[in-house]
Design goal:
This protein is mostly helical and 461 residues long. It has 16 helices and no strands. It is globular. It starts with 21 loop residues before the first helix and ends in a 9-residue tail after the last helix.
Length: 461
């Protein structure tokens, strides 16, 4: 295993800049969870479960909440960047497992950011009525957008989180508009609340339909785990994380349930599941005179926020792993004035640019991202229990012992094929993890070379 002493270099280096208080952290959590998932997933969930579209979102929320308690114990116990990879490193001490957990989180974030960039380009064209097609022009806009995200990331975390505040407010406004229009229309009798108790699951049982739909809905709940990678840029993380993370989960879970109930009450489940813009149908039915073109702008801001937050997370994860000696220490370099992990930002940006340019849109991306993170969450829930044998000097949050057990069992089950998950998701995840194994071997060679490098001789006075 790598030498953890790399965490304390001989020469002092600049640390990350602590700028996030409880307000900024809450908006970071809410903005990351809301993302783009709910704007597209409502219809797909409705297609699997029928009118009871709220049920899978409730189940996904409960699984995320239980896992959130595990993250709270660990982030307040070890308030450092790197999140799940750091906890795995401390709990099991297996370099390969640590690297693969880090790679799973990193790849899910970068792939989501790259796809969000392409979605931004498509919505940018729609919002401004540009005829850019789906080929080179879309790719060029997406690449330019990712370059802007990198510049903001390099500029400083303060600029990044302030922009996140603006973008979060925009995407939250879009969902509140849907809820308000739905409730207003339903108040005038333009809907049917009876649909919300109808299960239309085809050949599956109601329970089977909810489980399948939960594997989709869970993608809308991921994002809370990204916040722990920002621990070194938070003020008093041990104190503020419990209230902020739980509040963020409760706010987003409530919004999702309200959106799903109002949506299916206004638009029948079979119609809601057609096309890629289910919430737009809700607005058109509930308020025919509303300027629906505005939703192209709202969605554009929502996907921009997803890309920004994922790239912030990915660079801090890589930085944290360098500080722990799991990846080459160069990734832990911090800009002396900007206090940002410059090498980690440059590397993760290059990976995202490569995905945008050469991979394009990946099918089943949302399900694959959720699959990878559910596997990570299973390990994190187990790590909480293992690390109970590692006391720390300061006070920290402690979750009830039963919750990590329930979390590990639930997350582990949702990873299995028993959920009737699309097999393509396992194929994509397998390819990504295979790439991770190759990179681990390359990383091992780099670390060995780093250890055997002769020390630079001190010049004679």
């Amino acid at each position: 295993m790598a030498d953890v002493s790399a965490e304390s270099p001989a020469t002092p280096e600049p640390s990350l800049h602590r700028v996030m208080g409880p307000g900024l952290l809450l908006l970071f959590v809410v903005g990351d969870i809301l993302g783009t998932g709910i704007y597209a997933l409502t219809g797909r969930v409705a297609a699997e479960v029928g009118g009871a579209v709220w049920a899978p979102f409730v189940v996904a929320f409960l699984v995320a909440l239980v896992t959130g308690f595990s993250y709270l114990e660990l982030v307040t116990k070890y308030p450092h960047a790197a999140g799940a990879a750091l906890y795995t490193h401390k709990a099991f001490g297996i370099h390969f497992l640590t690297f693969m957990i880090a790679f799973a989180v990193l790849s899910s974030g970068i792939t989501s950011a790259a796809t969000a960039s392409r979605a931004f380009a498509a919505n940018f064209a729609e919002a401004f009525d540009f005829e850019v097609g789906t080929g080179i022009a879309i790719t060029a806009v997406a690449l330019a957008f990712m370059a802007v995200v990198a510049a903001i990331n390099l500029r400083g975390v303060s600029e990044g989180v302030k922009l996140n505040v603006l973008l979060t407010c925009v995407e939250l406004t879009g969902l509140l508009i849907v809820i308000a229009i739905g409730l207003w229309a339903l108040g005038f009798g333009n809907g049917d609340f009876g649909r919300v108790t109808e299960f239309q699951t085809g050949e599956r049982s109601a329970l089977g339909g909810v489980i399948v739909a939960t594997t989709l809905a869970f993608y809308a709940m991921v994002g809370f785990e990204d916040s722990v990678n920002m621990a070194e840029e938070c003020k008093e993380p041990t104190r503020i994380f419990p209230k902020v993370l739980l509040t963020g989960l409760l706010v987003t879970g409530t919004i999702y349930v309200l959106v799903s109930i109002t949506s299916v009450a206004l638009v029948p489940a079979d119609q809601l599941g057609e096309g890629d813009t289910p919430l737009l149908k809700v607005v058109e039915v509930g308020a025919p005179g509303f300027p629906t073109h505005i939703f192209a702008f709202i969605t554009m801001f929502a996907v921009a926020n997803s890309a920004l937050i994922n790239m912030l997370m990915a660079s801090r994860l890589l930085y944290g792993m360098a500080r722990q000696g799991v990846v080459p220490r160069a990734f832990g370099q911090v800009h002396a004035r900007r206090r940002t992990p410059q090498i980690a930002i440059a590397f993760t940006t290059l990976l995202a640019l490569g995905l945008i340019a050469f991979v394009g849109e990946v099918p089943e991306l949302g399900g694959t991202t959720a699959l990878l993170l559910l596997a990570v969450f299973t390990v994190v829930n187990v790590a909480v229990l293992v690390l109970r044998r590692d006391p720390v000097a300061h006070k920290h949050f402690r979750t009830p012992t039963g919750l990590p057990v329930v979390g590990a069992l639930c997350c582990g089950f949702l990873v299995t094929p028993f959920t009737d998950r699309n097999p393509d998701q396992y194929l994509i995840a397998g390819v990504l993890l295979a790439i991770g194994v190759v990179l681990w071997l390359v990383n091992q060679l780099a670390i060995r070379h780093q250890r055997t490098e002769p020390a630079t001789p001190t010049p004679e006075p």
